[in-house]
Amino acid sequence: MSEAENSLGFLIRQARNQYGLSQRQLAHLIHMDCAELSRIEAGKRKKPNLLYLKGLAEVLNLDLILLMQRAGYDQEAISLSKDLEDILFIKKYRRQLENYKEFYSNLMKEIEERRKTALLCKGIFADIIDRIDHSNFYSNSMTIKEVSEKLKEASRILNRNIEKIEDYISLDID
User: Fold this and answer.
1) 8 burial level (CB within 10 Å; 0-12, 13-18, 19+)
2) What is the rounded distance in angstroms from the CA atom of residue 61 to the CA atom of residue 88?
3) d(CA 59, CA 51)
4) I want to staple 30 with a disulfide (CB 3.0 to 4.6 A). Which of 9, 38, 55, 151 is the partner?
5) Contact 81, 68 (CB under 8 A)
């Protein structure tokens, strides 16, 4: 591999072209001045800002350590960068885990509420069935109107349950 092919600028230009990006588009994506990107690709900017290299690595799917090596960063800076990457990675996933934990905690509470209302409806239905099947044990039997009202009450409760469940099913947790 020639020295030019081993350069930072060559690697970035090659990756940029693979993604079909112009210098202007790439510079815009990483909040960088287009002229600065041009200088890096031309080899005029030997040791670009680390934040620019990080942006280039992320957008072009390149290894940040490789970019830093080609830019001439010393081993100490590269080691610090690795540590920083690890810390940022851990923080990002801790935050995501906390979000999932909160979501599932809320979901479990909601499931418990739905279970309670389902049991309430089960009680309503059991009462209606019991009064119909064993009307001779009750001093006053239920009228059709009373049965209808109890069934409407259970229907309202179940509809609220269904609406709430559909809200959760349609959630996008990513």
Assistant:
1) buried
2) 17
3) 12
4) 55
5) yes
